[in-house]
Amino acid sequence: MSAYTQQPDGIFKTVCSLDCPDQCGLLVHKENGKITKIAGDPEHPVTRGNICNKVRHMAERIYDDQRLTQPLKRTGPKGSRQFKPITWEEAIETITSRWQSLIDEHGPESILPYSFYGNMGNINAEGMDRRFFYRLGASQIERTICTAAGGAGFKYTMGGSIGTDPEDTVHTRLFILWGINAVSTNMHQITLAQQARKQGAKIVVIDVHRNQTGRMADWFIPILPGTDTALALGLMHVLFAEDRVDEHFLREYTVGHEELREHVKSYDPATVSGITGVPVEDIYKLARMYSETSPAMIRIGNGLQHHDNGGMNTRAITCLSVLTGQWLVRGGGAIRSNSAYLAHNAAALQRPDLLQNRNTRSFNMNQLGRALTDTQPPVHSLYVYSCNPAVVAPRAAQVRQGLEREDLFTVVHDLFLTETAAYADIVLPATSAFENLDFYTSYWHHYMQLGQPIIENYGQSKSNTEVFRLLAAAMGFEESALQDSDEQLIRQALDHPANPYLQGIHYDALQDHHYLKANRPEIYPDRLETPSGKVELYSATMARLGLPPLPTYIPLQEQDQHDYIFVPGPTHNFLNSTFSNNAKHAGMEKLPRLFINTADAEREGIADGDTVVLSNQYGSCELIAAVGETVLPGVVVSQGLWADTPDHQPAHLVNALTPDRLSDMGGGATFFSGRVDLHKKQLPVTLESIG
Ligand SMILES: Nc1nc2c(c(=O)[nH]1)N[C@H]1C(S)=C(S)[C@@H](COP(=O)(O)OP(=O)(O)OC[C@H]3O[C@@H](n4cnc5c(=O)[nH]c(N)nc54)[C@H](O)[C@@H]3O)O[C@H]1N2
Ligand SMILES: Nc1nc2c(c(=O)[nH]1)N[C@H]1C(S)=C(S)[C@@H](COP(=O)(O)OP(=O)(O)OC[C@H]3O[C@@H](n4cnc5c(=O)[nH]c(N)nc54)[C@H](O)[C@@H]3O)O[C@H]1N2
Ligand code: SF4
Ligand SMILES: [Mo]
Fold first, then answer.
1. Nearest ligand to the C-alpha of residue 305?
2. 72-140+343-438+460-481, which class in CATH?
3. Alpha-carbon distances, residue 629 vs 203, 274, 637, 673 (angstroms)
4. Where would I find the 4Fe-4S Mo/W bis-MGD-type domain in this sequence (predicted)?
């Protein structure tokens, strides 16, 4: 119960919990105890009352008749979706007694948690769960599916996830969106850029797909997948060769600029053009434009780092962003992630000390299929929450093969019977964020927000924190940390003297003021968290780790002998796989399309609207051809992590084709570095078609 849940009617401020950089302020309208409308909060300093279509329709998801209301136990074969309702007592007892016997027989590392950020609230995403699994001594999961590679590449260069204040976008004169489909994935970044554009700013988009973001650009630059490091090096070549760098900034704020100056000589525009597909004159034009326009800002997206060379792509663009001294100019610099400014006290929240120095094994979440099918000693139990790996994890056929294992005891905690939950032995119903207390820290803007429960728990659903408290009690764990209340968890997380940017931001203050801004440096920090305290154009740390210490182009792996590079990204009306199970959202998306160049389509005998079968060594899937010039020859792009079809077939499962190789840094995913072959689907001959 909270002050809000007790009021049957009213308009309540809260925050969007989805895994999206914008982290919008919301106004939730309630009548007779039910949410009737979700709108944007005009008082939010960045998102200012505008929200996306997905969340505008979210009340329907909250009250969807498919939503889980009670715990379920499997009654049919795995994947058959046959379950019977059970009580919470039986569910918790079934889970903990099974775990107890697994621990006795195989040890706690036979149990593997698997989660991501289906709910961005910190205590539910990475609070009580972490405490519980540390105490249990379970195998660890490396949560590397999203930003791991780029995060590592950026950190080697800048020391941590710091960037320009997005609110300063309005001051920029040149805004470069590099590998980000912001019209769909970061809409308020576009709103801010449009404001700058009204003052005369130019918008440049560098992408492998001329999608909705590319179409709104003043200048769209198509590039071949995984070649961004080469383009950044080519631009740096021109900047050095034509004395367009800021020598003062390089001397005072960076290390390794002399080495870099020598190093980029070999990346002349002709060579770079051959690698990237970007014409030589465009490389000169962009380099000159970038050095002659100030402020100039780069928004570095996630797309570039879902590649074999993803860490390096991000690092190379980051190095480019410092050469002209733009980081000292309001409205200059770059944004990849700003999460360091709102970093809470992770150790106090997650309590890794509960592991008691046990040395537990660890799995990379991008290789779940291997973990479940090809690991000794085996994983005997999987506990999934806030994530839908049967759809979102790479090499999906192997993941599902693992989930089918009769001897794998699987628990899934979610709001819906997802594709993953279909394989569970026990399914637990989760609350939505509108039913939880939590605090939220954007990884793009600088505002922290509190989300109070607005409605009662739906059916018998429970939050992640509540379920882990129940599991801890049933396991007989006596540490008080495993019974802390949600409010206590938040207070502990925000007690963080080591982060100066959080000064004055604590639980009580968040209740009084809905939006509290990190005390970030005016423009640029005095000292970076790199070993040298400066931007590391040359990274001795990388050299020690056997990585190229200077930004270096390393091509995508060619180990797969297939014709096309396949880039399956997210889409406008879904949030990863969330909403893909909703007919309205799927309807707004219309079709699972495959963007293919006209010349390639002609060669393959594929016409616009044809069903295309994509295949490779991992699996196959079907998409509908969208033939045109939105992608370069040799590249095919899809959008959206589509749900299984109504008869539960994974027909449009793009991750059936994605590799589970790891990126060059950070153990990141390589969703966009895979290759596929294409052919037109031959429709079965029917009597009618014969005539
Ligand atoms: N509507 C909506 N919003 C979302 C999400 C969603 O699913 N739907 N997901 C959320 C999440 S979890 C994340 S991580 C972000 C992701 O959002 P973004 O940061 O925008 O990342 P992606 O959409 O994965 O890829 C961005 C762009 O990179 C391009 N790209 C792919 N490979 C390359 C390359 O090698 N070079 C270049 N230059 N471009 C390339 C793709 O064509 C795509 O247009 O969005 C968040 N917001
Ligand atoms: N091919 C391809 N694959 C990708 C990507 C891509 O671009 N291309 N993007 C990748 C990226 S960047 C990401 S971040 C991942 C995202 O992958 P996921 O983290 O799996 O994201 P979703 O698909 O949105 O699934 C989140 C699930 O959490 C559930 N959920 C929401 N709130 C709660 C809660 O409070 N408690 C519990 N227990 N459950 C909750 C939702 O109902 C939903 O089923 O996908 C990755 N997969
Ligand atoms: S999904 Fe993103 S854009 Fe939509 S309401 Fe949530 S934070 Fe805002
Ligand atoms: Mo992500």
1. 1
2. alpha beta
3. 21, 20, 12, 21
4. 9-66
